[in-house]
## 1
Amino acid sequence: MLVSLNVLAAQEPPLPDTFAEHKIVMQISDPNPFKQTLVLNVAGNLVKYYGSTNMDLEIVAFGPGVRLMLEGNVNTPRIKALMATGVRFSACENTLTNFAKILGKKPKLIEGIDIVPAGAARIIQLNEAGYKTLKP
């Protein structure tokens, strides 16, 4: 029975094998649309400043911040544009499970967003791999 439960759990994406000079993880855990927009603004500014080849950036959402990554979000075009530059987005499976309890079904994410078992743990893993955390 444990084996089948593990198969259903979100698989942790592997840590990026990157030679980027700047490794950054950004946290979004706030439901405030202003803060969510700020995270996207900062990400866009970092891409412009460092260039996508000199920087590896992952935006990790957990708690109410996951709303930023839900399908149909007003920021979907901006998220897709950042993805096109190589920015990665990860959403917390724990949060999605809690949303499902409230909504009666799991919400859909914007296509291309990874699901990680625990958003906070993902940030810790990336920190341990040399990433610096930004929380605008």
Note: The two ends are 42 Å apart (CA to CA).
## 2
Amino acid sequence: MQTYSKSTFRLCDDYTIGVICTTEFGLTAFRHMLDEEHPGLEIPDSDTNKYILGSLYGHNIVLTCFPGNVGKCTAAIVATHLIRTFTAIESKFLVGTGGGVPSSKHDIRLGDVVIGMPDDNNCGIIQYDLRKCDDESFQLKGFLHPPPTGLRNIVWGMISDHRGRENKIREYVSEMVQKLGGLSLYSRPTQKDLFFKADYSHVSGETTCCNCDATNTVHREDRWSPDRSRIHEGPIASADSVMKSARERDEIIKNIGKVLCFEMEAAGVATEYSFLTICGISNYADSHKNDIWRYYAAAAAAATTKEIISNLQPPEPSKTTLIALLSNLGLDISYTKLTGWSVVPVSAK
């Protein structure tokens, strides 16, 4: 018979926020932004996810990530295990990286963040590889769940706040990097942000754009503070394959309309569940895609999620909090798998 300490014992039902990170390095970034990390819990054998538990702004939060392979099917499986094991989760996030789509209306740069938010034509996630094409039309098929209304309202309020103050990305990422020297990979890259014209392909065999012709870049005005990432909201396009062709990217946008970002997992989650998807921009969904910005982009997405969580209402007292309150009243409480909860006066022991 196993007995848990009243000072450390928590149940799966004490966790009300769930975060799925699309990569291990994204999970690492988020892990080191927690206020506190908790001991692990026993989970069902059928649940193959690996979890990191902790707290953030008074909320108990559970983190997990994909097991190496990515895509809509993997995303759906991971989300299902998370929700079945942690049944009290109310706020759910999918946090990762993606390829940004700059336009005249959306000045998206590397290191920025896109939050998948609905508009009049979609739920915030567009599954562009599930469609019907004929000679006259390009029609998307299937139903996807929009983000939860409560989280959407928080995002709108946060975006409004950012019109008068800086977002928290730089603050949170700097704190994380300073916490551990080994996290310097997550610092903002010093390489120049280049957005190439759609008809100019990457130099074959090169891992960076050092030998690409800079005269083929799209001219963009310098930002007044180029080291500060911005947060954008709008539709995110999702499919099972990586978008690495500027021509295909632009053709998809021509057919489906406004898109701010391309990624690979959100549609798999949104088919079954209501998540808020947050993508750090690590490339421009073209042949010039490389890994230089992916660590910082993952950290920026984690920081944005952390700022959203900071705006959530304080949670109801958890079982752990009730244990502490009862203890302060002179009661001793214990829990065993065999008998459940037991509350007795300390003097009776």
Note: Residues 1-7 have pLDDT under 50 and may be disordered.
